[in-house]
Design goal:
Blueprint (H helix, E strand, L loop, with lengths): L1 H25 L6 E7 L4 E6 L3 E4 L6 E7 L6 E6 L4 E4 L4 E2 L26 E11 L2 E13 L6 E2 L3 E4 L2 E4 L4 E3 L9 E3 L29 H11 L8 H7 L3 H52 L1
Parallel strand pairs: 3-9, 13-14
Antiparallel strand pairs: 1-2, 1-4, 4-7, 5-6, 5-8, 8-9, 10-11, 11-12
């Protein structure tokens, strides 16, 4: 009875070991570095990753993987994949299939050696161990699913997709809101972008046309005193309640800048005319003074 219990306990522990090992190999656990999938023929990065993902071999079928540990004190990095391949690297870049000074396919120094590998379709599990003097310090796990081609385009009443590209056929999109209204995209929150392009019509170059009626400063002053904001510019209350349209607001602000430019030009011309008139007045005054002096001498 005791022997049977021991055997059952050993069997249970071994089963748990297999289950835990399987879970580790199929669930991404990347904490100690980042990884790059490399096109070995072009020595070019395909993508950086820190989680499981799918790669389509039709896009690049000769590959390598580079590990970039966060810590700098590791002496070696060891890759183990579920197809039985083991690779230990002691010098960066740490490549799953090896490299020659950053050559991940054919090495320039040894053109007969090829470091890339052409995986088969299916799921490949990776274990990456970070070692110091032969002792494993930390371990990362991830899986890559290799498929030959991306799925064919699919469509529904709203969405269409083609590989990694998705587009919307009709309707409006709300992010953080379920009431986008008439806007094609409504976001209840902050948006971060490097550049935003706004297309708008009726750009205010009409201000510089010869038949444009520039508002007088007297009328502008009266409007400000009555309304508390510039003509054609929304009030603070309107902005608070309704927001602003970037394209229209940029157009209005440029209109004001061009009007200010015309006011400045007109002011400069008026000052020049005034200066010219003052100079002529002084010349006439000097002539009169000389005439009076001459008359007094006589």
């Amino acid at each position: 009875m005791e022997l049977r219990n021991n055997i059952s306990l050993k069997t249970l522990l071994f089963t748990l070991y297999l289950i835990l090992g399987y879970c580790q190999s199929t669930v991404a656990q990347v904490q100690y570095g980042t990884f790059k999938l490399i096109d070995a023929n072009a020595d070019a990065e395909i993508r950086a990753f820190s989680d499981d993902f799918t790669h389509y071999l039709s896009e690049a079928d000769s590959l390598n993987i580079v590990a970039e540990p966060f810590a700098t004190n590791y002496t070696h990095v060891r890759f183990t994949s579920s197809d039985g391949h083991v690779q230990t690297e002691g010098v960066a870049p740490y490549a799953y299939r090896g490299d020659s000074n950053g050559d991940y396919g054919f090495a320039a120094a040894s053109p007969t050696i090829y470091y890339g590998w052409m995986p088969q379709t299916g799921i490949l599990d990776f274990t990456v161990e970070y070692l110091i003097s032969g002792v494993v310090q930390n371990t990362d796990y991830f899986s890559i699913t290799f498929e030959q081609n991306p799925p064919p385009p699919t469509s529904s009443s709203l969405w269409s997709s083609n590989g990694s590209i998705a587009y919307y056929n009709a309707g409006n999109i709300g992010i953080g809101t379920d009431t986008p209204g008439t806007y094609r995209l409504a976001v209840n929150g902050n948006i971060r972008a490097k550049e935003i392009k706004v297309e708008t019509a009726n750009w205010p170059d009409y201000v510089f046309e010869s038949d444009y009626q520039l508002p007088s400063l007297k009328n502008v002053k009266s409007f400000i005193e009555m309304n508390g904001h510039l003509p054609n510019i929304p009030s603070a209350f309107e902005v608070k309640t309704s927001g602003v349209e970037l394209g229209e607001m940029n157009r209005l602000l440029l209109e004001k800048i061009e009007q200010l430019t015309l006011y400045t030009i007109n002011l400069e011309e008026a000052l020049q005319n005034q200066s010219k008139a003052s100079k002529e007045y002084l010349e006439k005054l000097e002539q009169l003074e000389r005439f009076v002096k001459n008359q007094l001498k006589e």
